[in-house]
Design a protein that fits this description.
Elements: H1 6-24, E1 32-33, E2 36-40, H2 41-60, H3 83-104, H4 119-141, H5 149-168, E3 183-188, E4 195-200, E5 205-208, E6 216-220, H6 222-229, E7 241-244, H7 246-255
Parallel strand pairs: 3-6
Antiparallel strand pairs: 1-2, 3-4, 4-5, 6-7
Length: about 260
């Protein structure tokens, strides 16, 4: 459950977008998203669909540099407030991005903002961009949210890699995630083997799959662990349990809040 196959990521972009569209169907698109308070539900949807189109353009053109948003056709979303037009626009953007990713394959060289410059990065990133923002939409629309265990686990793995990259790149918040020999253990109670040990070393943090004692433990169903880790669920929620030094968990969450 560390990395999913490239084709699976492509499939998930479509499946997660379909699930997002189902969440939006019949919802009040003018409500504020609690976990992204600068956005309404419609603006959240436009953000996700715009990201799909932006990545599709990067992949389709094999861009060697960042593509400005004003160079991406249709990124601003459909005109007017018709929910049907928004739904069709979301579906089209995801389908076009996936078509570009499938045509390119996982190893095509393209610009990314991160540690690898391959299309495989974007397939994974767009999967989890959609997974997490679908959770935002579900919270705003007040509907249930579930995600499969392999995808939820990989969302955690990808976020760990992003925070590690930010630390390596000198991000001031991520740079503080070190020192003291402390550790954080994530323990999914419903999926065997879905456990992570995050250790705070002198210079940086590291992580691995392990079941070991730690300074603080976050326990609960895997989906809920993923939501807490992505700051979409408060660690005081009764669906999860925090054992040990809760301030260390808060320390992690506060310093991995960028992006």
């Amino acid at each position: 459950m560390t990395l999913l196959p490239y084709d699976r990521y492509c499939d998930e972009i479509l499946a997660q977008t379909d699930a997002l569209r189902a969440t939006l169907a019949g919802a009040d698109l003018t409500v504020t998203v609690p976990t992204c308070p600068d956005w309404t539900l419609r603006e959240l949807a436009v953000h996700v669909g715009g990201a799909h189109r932006w990545v599709g353009e990067i992949v389709r053109t094999r861009a060697a540099e960042d593509v400005p948003e004003d160079k991406v056709p249709g990124i601003e979303g459909p005109g007017g407030d018709d929910p049907g037009a928004l739904d069709a626009w979301l579906a089209e953007g995801a389908a076009d991005a996936v078509a570009a990713l499938r045509e390119a394959g996982p190893d095509a060289e393209v610009w990314t903002w991160a540690w690898e410059r391959r299309t495989d990065f974007w397939a994974r990133r767009m999967t989890h961009e959609t997974v997490v923002h679908r959770a935002d939409a579900a919270l705003a629309a007040r509907v249930p949210y579930t995600v499969g265990p392999e995808v939820a686990a990989d969302t955690i793995e990808e976020w760990l890699r992003i925070v590690s990259f930010a630390q390596e790149d000198g991000d001031p918040e991520a740079s503080e995630l070190r020192g003291g020999g402390r550790s954080l253990h994530l323990h999914a109670t419903d999926v065997p083997g879905a456990e992570w040990l995050i250790g705070f070393g002198e210079d940086r943090f590291t992580w691995r799959r392990a079941h070991e004692k730690a300074t603080v433990v976050l326990r609960g169903p895997l989906t809920e662990l993923m939501l807490v880790f992505n700051r979409r669920l408060d660690p005081t929620d009764d669906r999860v349990e925090v054992l040990g030094d809760a301030e260390l968990l808060d320390f992690w969450l506060d310093r991995s809040s960028f992006g």
